[in-house]
Each structure stands twice: as C-alpha cells, then as structure tokens.
Amino acid sequence: MITLDSTDKIILQMLQEDAKRNVKEIAAALKMSKTPIYERIKRLEKEGIILKYVALVDKKKLTNAMVVFCSVSLDVQKREELHKFNEAISKIPEVVECYLMGGAFDYMLKVIVSDLEAYHIFSSDKLAVLPNIKQIKSFFVLNEVKYSTAVPV
Questions:
Q1: Residues near 125 by Cβ (< 8 Å), separated by ≥ 6?
Q2: Residues of the chain with confidence (pLDDT) below 70
Q3: Which of helix, strand or coil describes residue 30?
C-alpha cells in the first residue's frame, strides 16, 4: 500500500470530483505552484493510483436504463474455473461491475440493460449459458439512492 500525504489526498479528491480540472486550478486551490502539483499527479499516475480518466454519463438520459444486481453461484470454485468465469464475464458489455464474493454465493454482478426483456435475453442467452453456472438470482433496482465512483481517501 502506498502512503499518501494530505496534499496527495486533496488532489485525488479534486480529480475524482472533476477529472477535467487542470493543474492550474488544483495548484490555485492548494496555494501551490503548478510544477509540484503536476509532478504529484504524474507520480500518482505512474504508481497506478490514478488508473485512468473517464466521463460519467447520465444513463437515464441515454436510454431507459435498468440496473440489475445478479448473484451467481458456480458448480466448481477451483481457481481455474474462477479464472474462466472472470474472462467470460469481462467480455459481456451489459456487466459493468463484477465482484468475487465470500459467503452465500460466488459473484455479484451489476448489469445495465434497457428493459426487462433485454434482461431476460441477457440472463438466458449470455449469462446462464456460461459453463459452470449453478444458480443466478436477480435483484432489480427500483431507485438509485446514491451513486458515486469516488474512493474515500
């Protein structure tokens, strides 16, 4: 784990709030010159703390987006089988997040589809046909109460 000082943490918070913020704005907010801020950001990128810069879109304005969480249990949990599932699920565009879990099931997926029919097609034609699938349980989101991509620092 990499140790961050308070300036690094503020920089990360500011970039997570708005990745388009430029070095000049961050330096002004921190009452520092641009060069050390630029160097810190480059170090955070080089060390892999900042992975990439992305645009967050309002899915409601693009489509009638439906969010579904799926718990998936596998028949076999050997490392090789987990790896095969990981590879297969990473190629399915409807799956926007996937977590290997400990407990009652093996994986939790966050899926975005346009509607219930699209989810049915996804679950029956893309997910259930994967090898080693034992059980799928679906949880349909009624209302998104909080959404954030920011990691607390």
A1: none
A2: none
A3: helix
pLDDT tens across 56-68, in order? 888 778 777 899 9
Q: Which two tokens stand for residue 125?
A: 């034609």
CATH architecture of 6-46: Orthogonal Bundle (1.10)
Reading phi first (left if > 0) and then psi (alpha if -120 to 50, else beta), residue 147 is in beta
Parse the chain into domains and list their residue ranges: 6-46, 59-140
Instruction: Give the whole-angstrom CA distance, residue 19 versus residue 136.
Output: 36
Radius of gyration of the chain measured on its C-alpha atoms? 20
Where does 59-140 sit in CATH, by number?
3.30.70.920
pTM to 2 decimals? 0.85
